[in-house]
Amino acid sequence: MAKKFNVIRNTASVLATAGIISALATAGIVSVLATSAMAQQQTPPPSPKQFGPRVNTPNAARPNRPAPELVAENGKWKVQCESRPARKDAQGKDIPAQKVCAMVQISRDAKRPQIALSLIMRQQKQGDRSATMMQIMAPIGVFLPTGIALEIDGAAVGRVPFVRCLPQTRVAPGLCTATAEAQKATLAKMKKGSSANFIIYEAPGAAIKMPISLDGFTASYQALLDNS
After folding, report:
1. How confident is the model at residue 174 (pLDDT cuts 50, 70, 90)?
2. What is the pLDDT of residue 216?
3. What is the rounded distance in angstroms from the CA atom of residue 184 to the CA atom of residue 182?
4. Do β-strands 175-182 and 195-203 pair in parallel, antiparallel, or remain unpaired?
5. 57 lies in a domain?
6. Which domain holds residue 19?
7. d(CA 153, CA 143)
8. In which band, very low, low, confident or very high, does the pLDDT at 47 lie, cut at 50, 70 and 90?
9. 1 domain residue, yes or no
10. Which pLDDT tens digit goes with each residue over 117-165?
11. For residue 188, is it within any domain?
């Protein structure tokens, strides 16, 4: 029987209700940080048979959004914040101005640097509690059914499901996003661990391990909590 992974909880339906998924394609901290992260990922376009972004537009005009504020940097982690103005939601309900923060790390495949993965973690209200959400952005071409597996110090921890793929635009390459809530046990392992791998797949059985350093994770996570 296959081993069950239950440390990371699938929250795709909750996210859809909260509108976080749509925020990836519109204004918000994730879109700003994603644009910044993907700008660092862009490289000359690979041949059609290569895995990764198919089109590169580094000189295209980018949206005129203010850069997020860097509030902490520890190891390879950056904690960035964005002030979002008051606005209305799709139903016309007023949403007050708010400050939204996230901690970010980008990983590249050592052999094929055009393959990059961006990890964004942020706090999100879930009813009367605050949850830590993981959003992982992988390049178009990733094998979707397997999701993204997580290892910490070589031990399997969980699997994050893909929830959406976004097409190539003038300002960014196409990407696929996996989203889940990081439970307390997962966060505790990340605080104690030294390294993690987020594993994406080109095809069934064709795994690519994307290393994420856990050096500075605890300090960065505390900075995220302090600013959220």
Report:
1. confident
2. 97
3. 7
4. unpaired
5. no
6. 8-47+66-227
7. 24
8. very low
9. no
10. 999 999 998 888 999 999 999 998 899 999 999 999 999 999 999 999 9
11. yes
Angle in degrees, CA 109, 191, 159, rounded to 5: 55
Q: Which residues pair with 138 in a beta bridge?
A: 176
Q: Is residue 52 part of a domain?
A: no
E strands, the chain, are 8-9, 69-74, 77-84, 87-88, 94-95, 98-108, 116-126, 129-139, 148-152, 155-160, 162-166, 175-182, 195-203, 206-213
95 vs 178, residue with greater confidence: 178
Domain count, the chain: 1
8 Å CB contact between 182 and 224: no
Domain of 156: which CATH number?
2.60.40.1880
- C-beta separation of 139 from 118 below 8 A: no
Tell me how far apart the alpha carbons of residues 152 and 178 are, in angstroms, rounded to a whole number.
Answer: 18
Q: Flag whether the pTM goes above 0.90.
A: no
